[in-house]
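check this:
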Amino acid sequence: MRPQILSGSDAAALIDDGMTVLTVGMTLIGASESVLKPLEQRFLESGHPRDLTLFHAAGQSDRERGIQHFAHVGMIKRIIGAHWGLAPKWMELISGDHVEAYCLPQGQITHLLRDMGAGLKGHLSKVGLGTFIDPRLEGGKMNKRTRSLPDLVELVEFQGEPYLYYHQVPIDICLIRGTTADEHGNITFEDEVLKLEVLPAVLATKHFGGKVIVQVKQIAKAGTLHAKQVTIPGALVDYVVISDNPEQDHRQTSSFYYDPAYSGDIREPQSAVKSTPLTIRKLIGRRAAMELKPDVTINLGTGIPNDEIGGIVVEEGLSDDILITVESGVYGGSPLGGIDFGIAKNMEALLEHTFQFDFYNGTGVDFTFMGVGQIDGNGNVNSTKFSGRSTGAGGFIDITQFAKNVIFCTTFTAQGLKVDFDHAGLRVVEEGKSRKFVDEVEQISFNGKMALARGQRVLVVTERAVFKLSTGGWELIEVAPGVDVEREVVGQMDFVPIISSDLSYTSSLIYREGPFGLREFLGGM
């Protein structure tokens, strides 16, 4: 019953040509660097292992590490994952047709792992219908090389309704990370900042007879770990790798090795929270946050939402009134963004990744705030593929399909946009070279017509205008003071929106430095 204790190099040597490797993590959180680095080195020196299938849920990189170690022509034949926005080498390999590439929604991969671990052949869900995941559109196939290959997602009818059936993916090797292993292989996660989908991943791997490799910081005597703290029983662990350089290869996240406030071991005082400068991104976040209501649960996606709105809620003193969640399982606190997306300081609770998506899919969050790349006149939104470069869906599709209010946050144009603003309003100094409001989106990540049929409320918030989705298309309902509607709004769109007969102006209070009084916009909370 005792697992073998191996070096990172010996563990990497267990991965043979043609195997399917499942990795678990988010950004750099949970990355098994002590195994991934020698695995990459082995390939660069010998050309093996090659023709692997890499299978993962959340994006797992900080632009340099994590699954970037697999990003070599010949090493990977096929990638099945959710997000590559922080993995530039992977976006190049996919857009260059160097690998077979399937994108599936992040939450559906975690649920598929759970179902495979229970012995089921796949996962039945409505998530992805009407988007590029739907085989009637693209089937999640992200490049030309993949287009003629078999579908991993099947359209089926169940009890008279359409569903998507996500097919099983047999697993040979599972790479995960914990903090402590005892001599029997029991694994605890005390220093890790997320719970992730480690147990579903392990159970799915064991179902197919695969091997589980766990990287840890340290090993303890058998019987000394508290049973309630054990996340993975030793009976499910085959190999343990003790990281020989944890400060580099076993970091809580990309930006730091260890901070107890992010693993829930201490809570920092409110006085430690610092106001951030007022930028165009924060301006958009402020206006989006004005849509909130008292006592709601919200989700923050990557980009402007997570980077700005969480901090705005904290800065405005509303942490006890608005419950922030992140797809990683976070409830409450102040979330980090960018290469550290997925974690939060001063959390109230932390769920496993899989269960968080049960909540998003089953109940639906009150408000979700998401970034966006393209919007068309039919209400479709693209946040997953631009000019052939695939960032992937992440949890975007899972969350937006069932949220009661969907608020997209974006600059009006991209590539070079410059604005100036003060108490009098906003001025466009230099227009961006790339339009975001286009005739047709490159890929459908969010289906506007289906959202209206579900009764969802959908808005787009930019620095200069706010739009609401209606049966007739996008309706312009608000503009920033100082903005010329015809020249700087309609004139920068490929389609003509409906102009509200009750068009209003954005409150000048959002241009203030420091707290701007968000509470006053939320129904007198």
Remarks:
- The chain is about 20% helix and 25% strand.
- Residues 93 and 99 are 6 Å apart (CA to CA).
